[in-house]
Design brief:
mainly alpha; two-stranded antiparallel ribbon; 2 strands; 8% strand; extended
Length: 119
């Protein structure tokens, strides 16, 4: 039953260009725009905080989703939904402190972000 349902879903998706494009764009945004694995390093080395800052970083997407759900009634009137989704993804993954790159050498972490954090 599960495999048959998945096959039906993919068959339906193949006929819906907007829906399939939305899934692909969202998948891309979640993979490249949401660095959850490096939140602890970002909190300590980029923002100079501790466990509280890590908690805020993990809570931010949920808080944003709540605010978004409360204020997005107007989106039903958008004529070119595919373009709007693509624009939102560009804003989402645009270079920011959340798209910082962090790497570890032994017990030492180094992070770089664009724009550079204030010193």
């Amino acid at each position: 039953m599960g495999l048959r349902s998945m096959t039906e879903g993919f068959r339906h998706l193949r006929g819906e260009r907007l829906l399939s494009a939305t899934y692909l764009i969202d998948l891309n945004a979640m993979i490249f725009g949401m660095p959850r694995a490096v939140f602890p390093a970002l909190a300590v080395h980029l923002y100079g905080g501790g466990a509280g800052v890590v908690g805020l970083l993990y809570a931010a997407p949920g808080a944003g989703a709540l605010v978004g759900s409360l204020v997005t009634g107007w989106t039903a009137r958008i004529r070119h939904q595919g373009r709007a989704i693509a624009a939102c993804v560009v804003v989402w993954v645009a270079p920011s402190p959340s798209s910082a790159s962090c790497r570890s050498s032994g017990s030492d972490w180094s992070c770089s972000a664009w724009p550079a954090p204030p010193t």
